[in-house]
Q: What sequence folds into this?
């Protein structure tokens, strides 16, 4: 594929530029300003290696360190850098004054490029109207995904009664680096997300293609709408869009067909993430740190003999002469994809059914998923007599299926705010205990001081 040497707006951090009003009026020497429709295709097709903040597959990582799916022990404590340890300790600040936040930067870089595409691609040279419309829609889906992650990392859980007043994240709408970036409300951010996704519907291919699943499609657009509405506790809409995604594409991987030793099947283990039949939109972690021990709470949920997800996700540290527990096999470089999947859509639909007292439908979806995850011939069937029992089973199945894929931390915030589940997260590090109480202000990550220094209109989260 042709390599596009694009203008340096792609590598300059959007919140780190000031005094650049004429910046976009200058064609840098040796660079190419996108003009042809295919130039915009190349911009949106960036799938750079993990660790770069510019590729559209880059997503977020700090959620795992905030959650109760992993634990730290005497062996693993030394593997975490200072910033990661700050996240684990729910510290007042994560990054030093001048230090960058990889999650913030990766997502806002994508937003900036998406803004570029949506503002210019329709006037580009050489492409057909259909090609331009598709690129326009893809950019909107990428932008919506970025804002959905940002508002869930750096703002309170969506609660209808307070969302209009709760600080969300800055909505960057223009290409001017001197644009003011005050924080929009949580409600305004969600409105922006929903508008982008609805604008994209009807302009994309129906289902993902292998090796091209980093390109947004209708099934992924519906999936992100389902995810967003679930975060908003809008059950009817979440159900409708989960159904819409499943109707467009519903392929599941039968774990019994995987090669021996396969870990994190169908996820982003370069380059096999491109071969996944379940990933609707390929997104990966930003961090290269992925040495995680599964917590007792998570590991105990699996049928370790028959649930093939356990063997796919974990390895005993006894192979290394240790006796601490089970290491998430992401430590070898294979990390779970964070974009939406067909499995997640079944789980969203099952949760919506449980919350609307459709017990049989909820359990049917759970058992459909579990049949593809358990050893052939073993009993994977769940039963529930009440909506409350069904909802509990859904929550447990979400935790098993989506472990380390970016959803557990958001689920903790959601369950505590909506269901009063009172989930407390405690991390033990070097003999000290760090506890995050339900609905604590520190459930919201602090915004890097670097960005507030450069954009003082961005207010910090209370700590």
A:
């Amino acid at each position: 594929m042709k390599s596009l040497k694009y203008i340096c707006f792609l590598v300059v951090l959007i919140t780190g530029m000031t005094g650049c009003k004429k910046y976009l009026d200058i064609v840098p020497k040796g660079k190419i300003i996108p003009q042809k429709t295919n130039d915009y295709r190349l911009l949106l097709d960036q799938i750079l290696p993990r660790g770069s903040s510019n590729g559209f597959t880059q997503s977020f990582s700090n959620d795992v360190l905030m959650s109760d799916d992993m634990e730290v022990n005497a062996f693993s404590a030394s593997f975490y850098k200072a910033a990661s340890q700050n996240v684990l300790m729910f510290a007042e600040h994560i990054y030093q004054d001048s230090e960058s936040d990889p999650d913030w930067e990766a997502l806002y870089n994508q937003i900036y490029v998406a803004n570029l595409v949506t503002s210019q691609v329709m006037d580009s040279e050489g492409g057909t109207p259909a090609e331009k419309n598709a690129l326009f829609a893809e950019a909107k889906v990428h932008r919506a995904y970025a804002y959905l992650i940002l508002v869930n990392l750096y703002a309170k859980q969506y609660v209808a009664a307070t969302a209009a007043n709760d600080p969300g994240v800055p909505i960057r709408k223009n290409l001017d680096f001197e644009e003011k970036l005050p924080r929009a409300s949580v409600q305004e951010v969600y409105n922006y997300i929903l508008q982008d996704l609805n604008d994209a519907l009807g302009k994309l291919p129906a289902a993902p293609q292998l090796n091209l699943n980093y390109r947004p499609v209708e099934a992924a657009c519906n999936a992100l709408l389902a995810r967003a509405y679930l975060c908003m506790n809008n059950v009817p809409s979440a159900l409708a869009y989960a159904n819409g995604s499943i109707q467009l594409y519903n392929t599941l991987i039968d774990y019994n067909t995987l090669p021996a030793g396969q870990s994190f099947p169908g996820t982003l283990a370069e380059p096999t993430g491109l071969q996944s039949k379940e990933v609707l939109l390929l997104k990966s972690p930003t961090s290269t740190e992925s040495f995680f021990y599964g917590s007792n709470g998570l590991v105990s949920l699996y049928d370790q003999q028959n649930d093939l997800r356990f063997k796919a996700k974990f390895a005993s540290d006894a192979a290394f002469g240790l006796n601490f527990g089970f290491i998430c096999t992401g430590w070898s470089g294979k990390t779970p994809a964070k974009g939406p999947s067909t499995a997640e859509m079944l789980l969203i639909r099952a949760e919506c059914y449980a919350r609307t007292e459709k017990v049989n439908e909820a359990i049917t979806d759970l058992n459909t998923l579990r049949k593809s995850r358990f050893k052939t011939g073993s009993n994977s069937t769940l039963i529930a007599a009440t909506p409350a029992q069904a909802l509990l089973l859904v929550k447990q199945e979400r935790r098993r299926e989506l472990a380390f894929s970016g959803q557990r931390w958001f689920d903790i915030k959601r369950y505590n705010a909506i269901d009063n589940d009172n989930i407390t997260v405690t991390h033990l590090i070097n003999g000290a205990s760090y506890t995050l109480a339900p609905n604590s202000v520190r459930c919201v990550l602090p915004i890097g001081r670097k960005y507030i220094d450069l954009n003082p209109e961005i207010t910090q989260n209370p700590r």
About this structure: The chain has a mean pLDDT of 88. Residues 8-454 form a domain with the Serine Threonine Protein Phosphatase 5, Tetratricopeptide repeat fold (CATH 1.25.40.390).
